[in-house]
C-alpha cells in the first residue's frame, strides 16, 4: 500500500483493502460513499457489488463481510492528498498556470499547495 493510502485512508477502508485489494476498496468507496451497504453471504455475478468490483473481489468481500452491513467511508482526505500529489508532480515540469488550467483550480491555490509542500519538506530536513 502506498504512503498516501496508509496516511490518509480511514482504518475501515484499509481493513477492507487488506481483504479485496486497494483498487477494489476504492471502487467500493466510490460506488457507496457513506451509504449503508449490506453484503450478501453468497454473491452472484449480477449483484451490484460484483458489477462494481468484479466477481473475484466481491466474493472475497462476501467471505469476510457476508451478512454484515458496511458503510464505506468517503475517503475525502485520501482523494485530496492524491490530487495534491499529482499537482505537485505536474509542477516539476510545467508552469503553475498550465497546471491550474489542467486541474481547473486557481493559480494561487497552486502556489499555496507548493509553499505548504516546501514547508513540510523543510521540516523533515531539520
Automatic annotation (TrEMBL):
Pfam families, alphabetized: Mor
InterPro entries: Homeodomain-like_sf, Mor_transcription_activator
Lineage top rank: taxon: Bacteria
Natural source organism: Banduia mediterranea
Residues in Mor transcription activator domain copies: 47-120
Protein name, UniProt field: Mor transcription activator family protein
Amino acid at each position: 500500500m502506498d504512503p498516501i493510502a496508509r496516511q490518509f485512508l480511514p482504518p475501515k477502508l484499509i481493513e477492507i483493502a487488506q481483504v479485496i485489494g486497494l483498487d477494489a476498496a476504492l471502487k467500493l468507496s466510490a460506488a457507496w460513499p457513506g451509504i449503508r451497504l449490506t453484503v450478501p453471504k453468497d454473491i452472484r455475478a449480477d449483484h451490484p457489488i460484483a458489477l462494481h468490483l468484479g466477481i473475484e473481489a466481491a466474493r472475497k468481500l462476501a467471505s469476510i463481510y457476508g451478512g454484515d452491513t458496511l458503510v464505506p467511508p468517503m475517503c475525502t482526505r485520501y482523494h485530496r492528498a492524491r490530487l495534491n500529489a499529482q499537482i505537485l508532480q505536474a509542477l516539476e515540469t510545467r508552469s503553475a498556470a498550465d497546471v491550474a488550467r489542467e486541474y481547473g483550480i486557481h493559480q494561487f491555490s497552486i502556489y499555496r499547495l507548493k509553499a505548504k509542500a516546501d514547508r513540510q519538506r523543510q521540516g523533515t530536513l531539520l
